[in-house]
Write a structure and sequence with these properties.
This protein is mainly beta. The chain has strands at 3-7, 10-13, 18-25, 33-39, 46-52, 67-71, 77-82, 91-98, 118-119, 123-128.
Length: 129
């Protein structure tokens, strides 16, 4: 059974930084891609950043230049370095993985929550002004 466990969330002031981690285990085959998503109060879940098995890393426009997605060399841990945090970044952040054959190669699919079949429980990020 695939397990994704996020950590690293917390409360910071505007302009601060956090690094989220997602520990993955239980894969029977390597994921085609992994991603970070977030869901604020009363909002839909949205894609933040993703990485596929050839190193493509699309970012949502609202985090470009501030957030960086990466993986360790074994691809068992996914990271999201978040700098210059803003109050509007406040949300529950989720790690997700797709282990079934992708339905296409378009980069925006990596930021589509409906394209993922495994999810973590989330870690809360709160940014105060």
């Amino acid at each position: 059974q695939v397990q994704l466990v996020e950590s690293g969330g917390g409360s910071v002031q505007s302009g601060g930084s956090l690094r989220l981690s997602c520990a993955a285990s239980g894969y029977t085959n390597s994921p085609y891609y992994m991603g970070w998503f977030r869901q604020g109060p009363g909002k839909k879940r949205e894609g933040v950043a993703a990485i596929n098995n050839v190193g493509t890393t699309p970012y949502a426009d609202f985090v470009k230049g501030r957030f960086t997605i990466s993986q360790d060399s074994t691809k068992s841990t996914l990271y999201l370095q978040m700098n210059s945090l803003k109050p509007e970044d406040t949300a529950m952040y989720y790690c997700a993985a797709r282990t079934i054959l992708p339905r296409g190669s378009q980069w925006w699919l990596l930021l589509d929550p409906s394209d993922y079949n495994y999810w973590g429980q989330g870690t809360q990020v709160t940014v105060s002004s």
